[in-house]
Amino acid sequence: MTRHPAACHDCSRPVLWTITEAGKRLAVDPAPNPEGNTAIWRDGTGALRSRRPSAELPLCGWERLHMPHVATCPARTEQLALPVGVTSLAEHRRRKRR
């Protein structure tokens, strides 16, 4: 299924751009991954399409599981330190619940 992979703008690794069922673009890693959560296939026009398999509609024979690139991108997995004076929203919510 590898066409001509593009490069991630953040880490320069190859990615495949797919179109989701909602019409949005989603970058996935080019190699199939059995631990992935995105099914991709090529439609009749040759475009790569993607969807999330579910219990109601499991993986079909013409689809392959891939990992979304955002889950494996080294540039995205590092948490950047917040600038001084900026509060983490998650931390703010935790304090508010107490």
Quick description:
The chain is α+β, with helices and mostly antiparallel strands and 98 residues long.
List its traits:
98 residues, alpha+beta, six-stranded mixed beta sheet, 3 helices, 6 strands, 17% helix, extended
Task: Characterize the structure shown.
- Helix content is 17%, strand content 26%.
- By secondary structure, the protein is an alpha+beta fold.
- The radius of gyration is 17 Å and the shape is extended.
- The model has no long low-confidence stretch (mean pLDDT 87).
Helical fraction: 10-25%
DSSP helix count?
A: 3
Overall pLDDT level? 87
- Structural class, judged by helices and strands? alpha+beta
Tell me the distance between the termini.
50 Å
Estimate the strand proportion: 25-35%
- Rg, nearest Å: 17 Å
The outline comes out as extended
Main β-sheet description: 6 strands, mixed
Helices and strands, in N-to-C order? EEEEEEHHH
The overall strand count is 6
Poorly predicted regions = none
Architecture blueprint of SSEs:
Layout (H helix, E strand, L loop, with lengths): L5 E2 L6 E7 L4 E4 L9 E5 L5 E4 L12 E3 L2 H4 L1 H4 L11 H9 L1
Parallel strand pairs: 2-5
Antiparallel strand pairs: 1-2, 2-3, 4-5, 4-6
